[in-house]
Amino acid sequence: MSVTVYDATPCLLGEGPLWHPERGALFWFDFLGKRLMSKAQSWAFDEHVSAAGWIDDRQLLVASETALFVFELDTGLRRDICALEAEDAATRSNDGRADPWGGFWIGTMGKGAEPGAGSIYRYFRGELHRLVTEITVSNAIAFAPDRSCAYYTDTEDGRILRQPLDAEGWPDGAPSVFVDARGEDWGPDGAVVDADGRLWNAQWGAGRVACYGTDGTLLQTLNLPAPFTTCPAFGGADLGTLYVTSAQQGGEAPAGQTFAVRVDATGQAEHRVIL
Predict the structure, then answer these.
(1) Do 142 and 97 contact (CB within 8 A), yes or no?
(2) How many whole angstroms separate alpha carbon 62 and alpha carbon 82?
(3) Which of 242, 172, 235, 236 shows the shortest CA–CA distance to 210?
(4) How far apart are CA 96 and CA 93, in angstroms?
(5) Predicted confidence band at 252 (pLDDT cuts at 50, 70, 90)?
(6) Which site from 20, 81, 158, 243 is most exposed, i.e. has the minimal number of CB atoms within 10 Å?
(7) What's the CA gap between 209 and 222, in Å, rounded?
């Protein structure tokens, strides 16, 4: 599988790629640069931004270090809808994704990766609910196509967990270990699940994305020319392209660039956020 550079703009810390199905466009973030990115343009903010879901063809729900807000792509206007640990100046948002019910899951973490400082929340029907506490680096939030479970990880812990969900998308019982990467010299970062239920995980420090079967078995790895891959997203007209963000982390190009890989898989269309 050939890897190409989708966008050569270097990101200090690329994060949160999102393929907008109605606009047919990829959006992503340079977290440390405080920017929302696309091929056509970028938008600067006065605080860190890290993840988004799509509301309609004009609006995104964006997670920042203090809030969830609606962002108008055509006008650049922002409208806050709820605070996100705004009272805690030591934390910020990290990984997030819309769920199949129209909710939005978002993780937080300490700005210095302080142990246990973060949480994972679900914004649903106008309210923000805390689901998981004592997370150090929240990542890998993704959802099975049959709605049976969510996935998430604490990168510092090294395990990707599988969380059963009920009919409304709430956690139902205790999570189980899906992938155990403790002891590896890399950490599980962002992830996405394809239409067949396989999980594709960017692995920080390994320069790759790994694909796991529905039972957690490693099926394949995609090597990329950036050691700090951060998050994958399926996109393209047929949802057959895997886009991968990366971080510069003191390196030179192509580190920090955004990549595209044609894969033998079809992604799920990203779910719409219902406010």
Answers:
(1) yes
(2) 11
(3) 242
(4) 8
(5) confident
(6) 81
(7) 5
Name the 3-class secondary structure at 256.
Answer: coil
Res. 1: pLDDT tops 80: no
Q: Are 191 and 161 in contact (CB under 8 A)?
A: no
CA–centroid distance for 194 within its chain = 14
CA gap 114, 232 in Å, rounded: 25
Indicate if 189 belongs to the active site: yes
138-151 confidence digits (pLDDT tens) = 999 999 999 999 99
Q: How many CA atoms lie within 13 A of 266 on its CB side?
A: 6
**pLDDT over 90 (residue 249):** no
What's at 131, amino acid-wise?
Answer: L
- The rounded distance, in Å, linking the Cα atoms of 236 and 81 is 30
Residue range 41-68, pLDDT digits in tens: 999 999 999 999 999 999 999 999 999 9
Residue at 215: amino acid letter: D
> Whole-angstrom Cα distance, residue 132 to residue 134?
7
SS3 content of the chain, % helix, strand, coil (to 5): 0, 55, 45
- From residue 140, alpha-carbon distances to 24, 33, 178, 196, 202 in Å are 23, 22, 12, 17, 8
- Rounded to two decimals, the pTM is 0.97
Q: Is the pLDDT of residue 250 over 80?
A: no
Each residue of 85-97: pLDDT tens digit?
999 999 999 999 9
pLDDT at 165: 98
Are the beta carbons of 27 and 14 closer than 8 angstroms? Answer: no
Contacts (Cβ under 8 Å, ≥6 apart) of 162: 149, 150, 151, 175, 176, 177, 178, 216
